[in-house]
Amino acid sequence: MPTRDVVVVAASAGGLEALQALLAGLPGDYAGVLLVVSHIPAQSGDALPKILDRATSLPVANARHGERLRGGHVYVASPDHHLLVGDGHLHVRRGPRENGHRPAADPLFRSAALHFGPRVVGVVLSGTLSDGAAGLVAVRRQGGVTVVQDPGDAPFNGMPLSALEAVAVDHVLPAAQMGPLLAALALDEVSSRVAEPDATMRQEVSLMEGNHEPVRNHPGRPSPWPCPDCNGVLWTVEDDDIFRFRCRVGHAWTADALVEAQASEIEFALWAALRALEDRASLHRALAERARSAGRELSADRFAEESEDADRNIAVLREFVQAGRLAPDPEPEPGGERHRPQNATANGERGT
After folding, report:
1. Phi, psi at residue 183, to the nearest 5°?
2. Rounded to two decimals, what is the model's pTM?
């Protein structure tokens, strides 16, 4: 009988320490497969595997396309590439970003849930925003086990809290306790049957696996908002558990990631407007000086007045932009005011 031996892990800000703690808790004879996605810079090479390798006796390496899954190994998503699994092999793809990230957790989680069903354990660690939440929903729907780092144990609790809000999580615990839990779950026998996934999951996994056919029949309906990555129409994805979107070419967003991206776009536009106002004020000052030196006082006064008006607008806009009023609420501190949902427990037991 198969066991719960396919573990997919998501980490972002503050997740390095959590990953190290998780790996350090695994026994040396752990026979499962760990697949790790962390939001890392595109130029980071194999730095993350080298760091994680010091925390465990299990082999750790960047995933290679077409490589066969082997028990007792840790595969890390390569920089600027999504990591997926299918038919017992790794798929490394440079597909459309999800939530502004590549690699992203949700594509890995969905592909594992599609192909391995109840054998999958989905783990969400420290990070901001919501990558991994939609993926955990897919894992749970296909009969897998869901695990989330206790928000009080996470340096950045946005990803853990988003996961807890999206799905009834089976285990909520500190990262240092996850290794023994994963070792115990790897002994649980499960059915070899994988539940038939819905059409949306199949479509999304196919898209990220490299099926370049255009998305002709979106499972949702068009929204009024454009995609921040390509400016195309975003379609709502029909998902009762989490409010999210995908565009025609495949970029995907959860609601809070979309809000964050919109805030960045607005800030960029405001800085551009501020620069244009600075240019306008500078030009009018130059024109005023030129007119005054030529004895054209009326023109000089008019240009000087235009420059003063621009300076007043600049002061107002600069104060607004620098105050950060367009940014989303700051990430709450661990143990801060955001409350753990009722379906979450902190002792590693299944939520109700």
Report:
1. -65, -40
2. 0.82
Domain assignment present for residue 21? The answer is yes
Residue 314 lies inside a defined structural domain of this protein: no
Both tokens assigned to 134: 């939609």
Q: Which secondary-structure segment (H or E) carries 184?
A: helix 178-185
Active-site annotation holds for 293: no
In tens, the pLDDT along 97-114 reads 999 999 999 999 999 999
CA 304 vs. chain centroid, Å, equals 49
Please identify which of the residues 131, 170, 239, 256 carries the catalytic annotation: 131
Catalytic residue among 39, 73, 82, 251: 39
Residue 23 lies in a domain: yes
Cis geometry, peptide bond prior to residue 103 (ω within 30 degrees of 0) = yes
Using left for φ > 0, alpha for ψ between -120 and 50, and beta otherwise, residue 72 falls in: left
For 59-73, write each residue's pLDDT tens digit.
Answer: 999 999 999 999 999
Q: Are 183 and 30 in contact (CB under 8 A)?
A: yes
241: annotated active-site residue: no
Active site residue 12: yes
In CATH, what number is assigned to the domain containing residue 140? 3.40.50.180
pLDDT tens track for 258-306:
999 998 898 889 999 999 999 999 999 999 999 999 999 999 999 999 9
- Active-site residue, selected from the candidate residues 5, 12, 171, 239: 12
